[in-house]
Amino acid sequence: MDPIDRIRAFNRQYTQLIGLLSRTYLGSALSLSETRVLYELSLGSGQPARTLARMLDLDEGYLSRVLKGFEARGWLIRAPAASDARRRDLALTAEGRAVLADLERRARDDLAARLAPLPAPAHAAAADALETALSRLTPLSADAVNLRDIAPGDAGWLIQRHAEYYSENYGFDASFEPLVAQILTDFLNVRDRATERAFIAADGARRLGSIFCVQSGTPGVAKLRLFFLEPDARGIGLGQRLLDACLGFARGAGYRQMTLWTHESHRAACAIYAKAGFTLTASKPVHSFGQDLVEQSFEIAL
Amino acid sequence: MDPIDRIRAFNRQYTQLIGLLSRTYLGSALSLSETRVLYELSLGSGQPARTLARMLDLDEGYLSRVLKGFEARGWLIRAPAASDARRRDLALTAEGRAVLADLERRARDDLAARLAPLPAPAHAAAADALETALSRLTPLSADAVNLRDIAPGDAGWLIQRHAEYYSENYGFDASFEPLVAQILTDFLNVRDRATERAFIAADGARRLGSIFCVQSGTPGVAKLRLFFLEPDARGIGLGQRLLDACLGFARGAGYRQMTLWTHESHRAACAIYAKAGFTLTASKPVHSFGQDLVEQSFEIAL
DNA sequence: GAAAACTACTTGACTCCAGCAAGTAATATC
DNA sequence: GATATTACTTGCTGGAGTCAAGTAGTTTTC
């Protein structure tokens, strides 16, 4: 099913479940639009009425009347703005804030009541998933992503995602997962911190990608491993950044060469390697993980 | 932040992002309520108007007028019901269906346009997360969960969740993850299918828990390992089910005894073990994974 | 088996949310 | 300093949605 249709299906069910479309806000004297205006006013970033109208997609005339009503009820003070006599500075009174607080509390209680049948961990899990969804719907900016060292859970995540990704996209069989698991187990157990390093690209709590620099066995030669990027984190220069970090670390650690092996079918990765100055040194057909592959070796002088 | 507040924050942002509160549906001649009615009619489960009104939380009088309007426009046929002359059977005409289809298409295009700036994988990722959230908001029923053997990605998931869970809840240090990783690597690599088995509890694509039955080294004695349940999957008898499956397998495989070790602080797990007939055979303080723990051994005759 | 209670739906009367368009007054632009 | 633009207000209006009282058919009750 198409993602758009899946999102629409979610909208239908969610609005019903959460009761989002109840027109009148909890039996209060306020319409939904009025509530939104009150809420926006409470944030009090000093927007003039016009911007408020645009933000909330409301008619300016209607908004004017709403504000007038708020003022009449003593919730709002509209004083002519000093900078521009056409404008009026909008400031909620303490009473206005109290009304909103009461409204918010009721909305909160209403939602809590709806979710009461569910166990507490489910609430947290749902909130997590919703926040995740929202973050997926917000363009990922490369500078929100930071590269850090490996932390608890990262190894498991990498094993899981490698197994899933290569199974789904390249048909790798079950023998691939323990291989990756062994690599990571060894890394965690016998890692030489001076010459070996993992970089995990993460956007907050979300893991997006990885790259490892480890010893190859041959002195002075580093090996690049476990270069991975989540599909939706591609195309924002993150792969390049990971590779740069890895190369930078290798240079700093005193290696004079870096090698890696990959499979021909990884077009995107191969392109990044080539662009970074790696050269192809060997290419041979193999049968691994239940698939016919062309294994390629790359190297670069540091 | 409280989950309820996080969900409310999501609602605010999401409705804005997706444009859920646009009252008039895409400039069509229909109100949002009318659209919902039309949609519900298209599902055509032959509900009488009254149930329709309750489902959509609409005033019956208003609904009556809406249906009348649909009929006048030739979208709907209201024939007196055979079973009950008060009722009228509601059936959309082909034209009615066409109108809805057109509306749906436009709503779809509208959403697609809103999401167009995002890369395609992000759409799928968002849809995934939204569906996840919805499933968290639906009470987990034990019978929707099935127990299966280990599959690609499961080992990585287990490693990740063990590392995260024990780090968050028991303060285990980074040495715990490679231990779990090694256990799983070995299991995948040298598992004896006749006498060793993993059960993964899964609700569709979501992994909820696990239990392993492996050889202990002593002939005739099985070892229970990696018993884990996601916090929100507890309390529905799933732990019991996993344990039963494990014990059942062990009996079938010809073991005469099963042992396990755990830590005293795992109250819930210990309670399940005791209830199943396990007896505590040893208890000793240890310092593991950066924590002072009391290691406990249990056993049961099969 | 007839009155009473109830159900399914309709209709009239009303409220008020909200959109449109034409204002007024202040500011910006040239 | 004339013209255009901006910020806001107000009059008018449609129609979405509500409330209550209706009509006609069905079930319950004794």
Short structural description:
With 302 residues, chain A is an alpha+beta fold. Helices cover 48% and strands 22% of the residues of chain A. In chain A, the strands form two sheets. Chain A has a seven-stranded mixed β-sheet with strand order 3-4-5-6-7-9-8, sandwiched between helices. A two-stranded antiparallel sheet of chain A has the order 1-2.
Structure report:
Two copies of one chain form a homodimer. The first copy, chain A, is built from ten helices and nine strands. The first copy, chain A, has helices at 3-18, 32-43, 49-56, 60-72, 94-115, 120-136, 154-170, 176-190, 238-252, 267-275, and strands at 76-80, 88-92, 146-148, 197-203, 206-215, 221-229, 257-263, 279-288, 291-301. In chain A, the strands form two sheets. Chain A has a seven-stranded mixed beta sheet with strand order 3-4-5-6-7-9-8, sandwiched between helices. A two-stranded antiparallel sheet of chain A has the order 1-2. In chain A, strand 6 (221-229), helix 9 and strand 7 form a beta-alpha-beta unit. The longest helix of chain A has 22 residues, at 94-115. The model of chain A has no long low-confidence stretch (mean pLDDT 90). At the A-B interface, helix 1, helix 5, helix 6, helix 7 and helix 8 of A face helix 1, helix 5, helix 6, helix 7 and helix 8 of B. Chain B binds a DNA duplex (30 and 30 nucleotides) through helix 2 and helix 4.
